[in-house]
Amino acid sequence: MEYIDDSFEAVIGLEVHTQLLTRTKMFCSCSNKFGQKPNSLVCPVCLALPGSLPVINEGAVKLAVKAALALNLNINKKSLFARKNYFYPDLPKGYQISQYHDPISSNGFLIININGTDKKIRINRLHIEEDAGKLIHAGDKSYVDLNRAGTPLVEIVSEPDLRSAQEAVSYLKELRDILVYLEVSDGNMEEGSFRCDANVSVRKGGTGKLGTRTEVKNVNSFKFVERAIEYEINRQISAIINGGYVMQETRLFDSKTGKTESMRSKEEAHDYRYFEEPDLPPLILSDEFVENIRNSFSEADLPSVKRKKYIKEYSLTPPDAEVLTQDRKVAYFFEKCIEINKSKGFNINEKQIANWIINDLLFYFRNSAFISKFLKNALKSPHGIDIFKDRFTVISSPPRPNLMYDAENIGELIEAAGPSAYSYLPDIFKVDNRENEKKIITKTIMSPENFLKLILEVEKGSINKNTGKEILGDMLLPAPGKEISKGMLLPYKTVEEIIKKNNLAQVSDEKSIEVLIKDVFEENPKELNDLISGKDKLTGFFIGEVMKKTKGKANPKTVNELLRKYIASYKRTGGN
Amino acid sequence: MQPLYELTIHELNGLLKKKEIKSVDITKSYIDRIKKIDPVINSYLSIDPERAMDDAKMADTVIEKTSDGDFPELTGIPLSIKDIYLMKDTKTTCASKILENFNSPYDSTVIKKLKENNFVFLGKTNMDEFAMGSSTENSAFKITKNPWDTSRVPGGSSGGSAAGVSAGLCAGSFGTDTGGSIRQPASLCGVVGLKPTYGIISRYGIIAFSSSLDQAGPIAKDVLDCAILLKSVAGYDKNDHTSRKFEIKDYPELVRKAGKSIIKGLKIGFPVEFFSEGLEKDVYKKIMDVKELFKDLGAQTIDISLPDTSYSIAAYYVIATSEASSNLERYDGIRYGYRFIDDKNKTGDLNELFVNSRTKGFGKEVKRRIMLGTFALSAGYYDAYYKKASLVRKLIIKNYKDAFNKVDMIAGPTSPTAAFLIGEKMIDPLSMYLSDIYTISINLAYLPAMSIPVGITGENSSSASKLPVGMQIIAPWLAEDKMLCVAKVIEDTVGFAEKYKPPLHESFFDEGKGRTADMADRSANIK
Ligand SMILES: [Zn+2]
Fold first, then answer.
1. pTM for this model (two decimals)
2. Are B281 and B253 contacting, i.e. CB atoms less than 8 angstroms apart?
3. Which of the following is catalytic: B29, B43, B80, B82?
4. Which entry of B181, B187, B232, B243 is annotated as an active-site residue?
5. Could you give all domains of chain B from N- to C-terminal order, each with its CATH number?
6. Which ranges of chain A have pLDDT less than 70?
7. B334 and A279 in contact by Cβ < 8 A?
8. Of A119, A295, B207, B394, which residue is the least packed, with the fewest Cβ within 10 Å?
9. Chain B environment of A83 (Cβ under 8 Å)
10. Which among A366, A418, A444, A27 has a CA at the least distance from the CA of A191?
11. Which of A58-72, A304-318, B258-272, B437-451 is predicted least confidently?
């Protein structure tokens, strides 16, 4: 990134809010779920009815401690809840319960990797708070949906140790990966369950004094974080070199213009009138509580550790290792494949397995035609509509009830959902080593073993690569008309079944290929002449022509061998 | 035979056990009494005679089915409830316009427990709006009169409950006490009121004024009734994080057993700070009489000091108003309650909606306290006010701890004066705040305390008003059992209930006298 004046240095700190993956809300027993009917997940507490009182969700505290430990933070055995007071229709109590003076954890760090070099980014604190509801504007009316009100959140505040937009994004990605891996957060930026505000200031390189900072809000994707910070850095530098100054203020990023706009100045800033929450006693954590959590996960579960392992042990490239570790489920799927590959003696190269996952398997989940087909099939199952209804509500936002039930409009829904659509698919990668889930896994998803068998078929040459990819798509599709149940993936088909049914086995018998080669030679006399007179490059052309005739079913290796044999004999005989 | 509405809970329970009467008889007696007297007293904000009779029939069925009178003591007993408790399908207004039409969708824990005891629900009682006040004059709906002199206030904020118990409009009642709101009206109305240790009665479903000070408690005709009411609702509640796990004692049983001998050798402390300037002469005399009585019973009376008492009012008003300013933010006109819509000026401005709804929905005193609290919590003022007040609170807790190292129980006046005239203190909020000067520090220290009637003012004068005087007994944390027992002995020795009755009991509401009472009201209001 080039700045207008590169004698300036940027100083950036990030405040990240992430929703916790708890079963219930932070201070009541309402379900903590996304995409439900508006105001269907509410109770006296999260509606802030008179007389209601908050009760701390222990599950949320556990997740917060887990995240804090993974981020090397000190756990404060005694922490306090505080009220942050302000009026807004999505804030039912008129205050948010948060932590202020004594957070649950403080003083940690995260290592990020910038162009092969490790850099330590200090984390000031991680504290617990609750989310607000949502406003939905339609025409001249505004509606309040309080399903989200009271969702558990942690806020993670970094020190101003980041020096560029790229560093900020790298910190954010690393943080997100860790939280997703530990199943603390789903890390979904588009849905707003993982959000970021950036504090940005600039200073002349080498000076110790910090410049006036602005807080940039509304950056809900990695790309926007990068663009917003870059814009803000340049805006500040140009203000200073033009003789102006930077005002302390909150600015809003507009993703359409790529610019930040002033939202409110320091003078207009809220006075939140923080004070200790009198409805909640201090939160006291026992050593045992913290140790149990510490022992519940291992370093090896963290994405950075996995990445290093993949690069070292399986010779993967850093970008490939990165893709595989972005989603914990994908990583587990990969590891499961490696394990089975070994135990069953398949002997497939690990790199090859990684390639299949990255290029082929993940391809389907980002392919809207596939997703569309997937959802259509799923809808034809007896309970398909019920199962996918919730997901469609999310995709179509604002909800359009008629659309939800109309399978024909899925394409439109997916378009509305954008690239996040794939997250509404059931868990293809639900490979978990927990005992109680083993049954579900073996019964309901494309098993790693089947996936490996497919790769093996291609390696053996009984089907070609393209056919293999096609088969993979079919293996992932739900079988229409079959009963499916909530939360589970649909019954898969085996490689053998699909090959047999679609007659996709390669044409390997030499006789029929020889016939085809002769046909091709006759149809292309000029190219044949050129080939015989020494233009070896044309071999590829003839292979392609033969493949076309077999609709890709011929084994390319066989075609290649036979072709070369014929050409050799033609050369000898001069075409007769 | 005495009319049923004059009997205590334990007396009624005795008759129910013996199957001499039915709950429907008791309930009918109260409903008739309410119809006759409440139009003047204004104890209730809402009554539901039909529901009460249904409750009574239900209770009678339960009594019928149980052998040996083995049913909860509150079964079939008609109670009133301060309009600050949420009770499913009843209006809960907190005496505020902002909640005028608010229907509770759920039961508070106290109500839930009372229902499990098969109590009879008579209605919701008047109070100062959001429990802010000491005279019940801050109600948005009506002014409750003191049954001993209808030109005077019943005290507050649980004034409707205290007046109701005193006038025989309910067998007992539940109020709340943030700075004296149970004890002061009990004192002014000549009944017994108890504020328990913070955290032993769940606050869930009770509209919050100041979360760290609010505590529910009973108002009753005598000490034993108080013990019965306390036992029926006390206990840990998982819905209230500030509620305590503790051993609930059999308070009624202990009170029944308490004889004069328990006073012997007890050290009773009388804080010098509670006998300072502003204490009415007759009140002082009555408390001194009880001090002598303690000595006669063999107690050791000791003058003690609670040196930081003078800061308690200031600390209290900072903490209570700060918490209130935040607790009352939820009344914003968005989800429920009063919303101001200006049809002529439809701007759709959000701020206007908030400001207008709250400006028009809240009364004067509530707004005054919201502003005080908002100021105290503001950036730059927090340290000087809220933080300092919290430090004072710690000092006051220490004062009491030190005192309880020397004495077993503390006693003194509940209120510096007997009931004052309606309108007398409304013009000067500070003088109103001072009427809680002896009760406030107890809330700051989370302690239990109760008020029992010990005498009457103006006994030697024919012209002076005859008004009840209450004595406050303060106990260490969770020592409700001992406090109730001491109170019981004093009650028996003084014999207040046998000697004095509010004039209402003597055919006050015969046509002529009823009108006199009305006239007295009007003159008070003009003043
Ligand atoms: Zn809820």
1. 0.83
2. no
3. B82
4. B181
5. 6-309+394-526 (3.90.1300.10)
6. 1-2, 368, 375-446, 478-494, 497-509, 573-576
7. no
8. A295
9. 326
10. A418
11. A304-318
